[in-house]
Backbone:
């Protein structure tokens, strides 16, 4: 039986869609519905919360970086279940200059309806103009329902519902201003799900609040079937047949679709934890250090001697070693934390980075591997970090352009079969 799906979006960031999505996911699961979640865009953090809420792995759906065939194949991967995809930023916000890759683009590509979460905290009758504008903005995007968030009182709710009563789109619920619907955050977004000690209690509380405020049966009934168009796409090639992947609180940013592609190609994934001072499996012919928060764990990483020795041994035997963002910094010689203290890193690349003076680097990237390196091909990806590069000595690894096509020049470093950059690879270009 074909699955069904819908997209949860909002007019703007900060509308509360993440916590309401988590509440909806857990509440739908508690009602016995088979539910699976996704996240629009390149966000690593929200899918881990989605997985905790549903008990099933959550995938990224990136309409800028992924081909439509992959998006549709991922959406079909859970037949008979309800797919709930959380949008990113505002519904029509995407990459410059024209908003390509927005949650609206994703909804249109998959043919899924949108449930719009409206932050009504400072609105009265004007909410109707806002909702009407979003409902009619694009003919290929169907806003099927509204959820009002941060409603101040029963009187406020009546005012809002009255203003919206002339629209053809139903109000599915109204959620009050709830202190319980809050999650701690840090510089790259929410504190990771695995670091949240009270996550299960939060999810249960959010589900209870949402169940009492939102018509869940009507919401689920608005989901549209996910159709099979028969399209195919080319999977991402694994970097080796036995791939050691760092996975812990410092290296938590791995895409489920990428690991899935590697497994589907016959590769074996061998997780290890640098924070637990574990070395990569000595039989691995590739080692991947994903992004994450090494700047918050720089001391333990610097002191992890078994990890250091294992990485040096991997380099000596010619294993391909690849680092992305945080993993790239750990491949370098040193990392200066926010307090100005330098920590010795692996020294496999001639890189020095610092968080003493933070500078935001953010945006989609078109990435071309330079000839002669251990990685080949063209990719789409993104960059999101606050690190400053103090020194980068060696051969560049990639050439990059931003989403508008502007040439950003050479990027990253490579040495023999060791390669890294600040970019996170998402898919082929």
Residues:
């Amino acid at each position: 039986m074909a699955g069904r799906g819908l997209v949860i979006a909002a007019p703007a960031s900060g509308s509360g869609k993440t916590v309401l999505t988590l509440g909806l996911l857990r509440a739908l699961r508690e009602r016995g519905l088979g539910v699976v979640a996704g996240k629009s865009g390149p966000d690593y953090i929200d899918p881990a919360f989605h997985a905790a809420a549903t008990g099933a792995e959550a995938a990224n759906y990136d309409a800028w970086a992924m081909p439509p065939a992959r998006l549709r194949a991922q959406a079909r991967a859970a037949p008979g279940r309800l797919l709930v995809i959380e949008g990113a930023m505002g519904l029509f916000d995407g990459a410059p200059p024209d908003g390509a890759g927005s949650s609206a683009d994703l909804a249109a590509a998959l043919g899924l309806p949108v449930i719009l979460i409206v932050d009504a905290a400072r609105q009265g009758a004007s909410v109707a103009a806002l909702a009407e504008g979003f409902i009619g903005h694009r003919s290929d995007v169907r806003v099927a329902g509204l959820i009002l968030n941060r409603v101040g009182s029963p009187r406020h709710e009546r005012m809002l519902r009255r203003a919206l009563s002339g629209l053809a789109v139903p109000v599915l619920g109204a959620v009050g201003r709830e202190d319980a619907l809050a999650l701690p955050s840090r510089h790259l977004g929410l504190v990771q799900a695995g670091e949240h000690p009270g996550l299960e209690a939060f999810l249960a509380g959010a589900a209870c609040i949402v169940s009492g405020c939102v018509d869940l049966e009507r919401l689920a009934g608005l989901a549209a079937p996910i159709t099979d168009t028969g399209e195919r796409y080319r999977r991402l090639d694994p970097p080796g047949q036995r791939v050691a992947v760092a996975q812990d609180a410092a290296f938590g940013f791995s895409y489920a679709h990428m690991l899935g592609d590697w497994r589907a190609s016959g590769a074996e994934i061998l997780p290890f934890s640098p924070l637990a001072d574990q070395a990569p499996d000595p039989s691995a012919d590739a080692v991947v250090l994903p992004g994450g928060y090494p700047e918050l764990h720089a001391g333990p990483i610097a002191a992890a001697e078994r990890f250091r020795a294992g990485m040096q041994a991997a380099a000596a035997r010619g294993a391909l070693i690849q680092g992305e963002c945080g993993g790239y910094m750990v491949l370098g010689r040193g990392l200066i934390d926010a307090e100005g203290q330098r920590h010795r890193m692996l020294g496999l690349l001639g890189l020095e980075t610092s968080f003493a003076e933070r500078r935001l680097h953010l945006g989609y990237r078109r990435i071309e591997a330079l000839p002669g390196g251990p990685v080949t091909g063209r990719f789409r990806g993104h960059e999101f970090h606050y690190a400053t590069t103090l020194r980068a000595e060696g051969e560049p690894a990639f050439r990059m352009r931003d989403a508008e096509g502007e040439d950003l020049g050479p990027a990253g470093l490579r040495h023999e079969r060791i390669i890294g950059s600040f970019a996170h690879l998402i898919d082929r270009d």
About this structure: The radius of gyration is 22 Å. Residues 199-213 form the longest helix (15 residues).
